[in-house]
Amino acid sequence: GTQRPRVVLDLQGIVAVLKPPHWEVDARAGGSPHPTSELGAPLLSSFLRWIYPAEQHPLVHCNEQQFGIIHRLDTPSSGLILAGKDFVGYYTLRWQQDTYELGREYIVLCRGRMPWGPRVVNAKIKTSKTEPLLSRISDEGKPAWTLVDPLCVLLRENGEEYSLVTIMIRTGRTHQIRVHMKHIGHPTVTDGKYTDQVTFESDRAWCPRNFLHRHRLTFQDTEAVLREAVAALPEDLAAVLRELRPAADGRSA
């Protein structure tokens, strides 16, 4: 069965929720009032509306304010999502996001051996205005900033090399991590949008979904206290890592 979201941190006016894979974050204005998306994916807003009644938390039931949700995660991905339960919480988070003070950290498995040491990718990203949403590197795009820090090199039995990396982002462009990783020649594993069909099918045979998990968020609460929400790597992705072995010369942090 489908995993359920889980509240990780419940604060005054703010909630951090763990989104399981295959749930859609419907954080666009005019979002669907239905419990599932047009493609049948369960909606995170439905979960939030279920646990926070409209009488106490009207913002969570307001699609003009994206149900209080301040950022997205791609449907195949898992990880932490922040939402405001009231307007003070919502705009406290929005301000931090718009001033690049929101800390977002991911664990990602990408193809190939990445050079050792942290690397900033800041190529501009342009996103299509029509569905299905696709992004690409373009000088006409919006600024985007991604910090990639390799943890170790891993091998499959067939000798193919992969890099396990942590990623921090300042901006939150559509599919930013996936587009930037493809741009530097190390696309994320099992990426149905930004790798070719042969690569995608080959990856999916041993990694059932896009290997991208937002495991850590740092932010200030409504009292300006620094908070941290953490979510360990889900079992399906941990199982994928257990099938790999460290490269003999693949340093681990």
UniProtKB/TrEMBL annotation:
Q: Which residues form the Pseudouridine synthase RsuA/RluA-like domain?
A: 63-183
Q: What would be one Pfam family of this protein?
A: PseudoU_synth_2
A Gene Ontology biological process noted in the UniProt record is: enzyme-directed rRNA pseudouridine synthesis
In terms of SUPFAM superfamilies, this protein maps to: Pseudouridine synthase (SSF55120)
Q: Which InterPro entries match?
A: PsdUridine_synth_cat_dom_sf, PsdUridine_synth_RsuA/RluA, RluA_PseudoU_synthase
The GO terms describing molecular function are: pseudouridine synthase activity; RNA binding
The entry sums up its family as follows: Belongs to the pseudouridine synthase RluA family.
User: This protein is called what?
Assistant: Pseudouridine synthase RsuA/RluA-like domain-containing protein
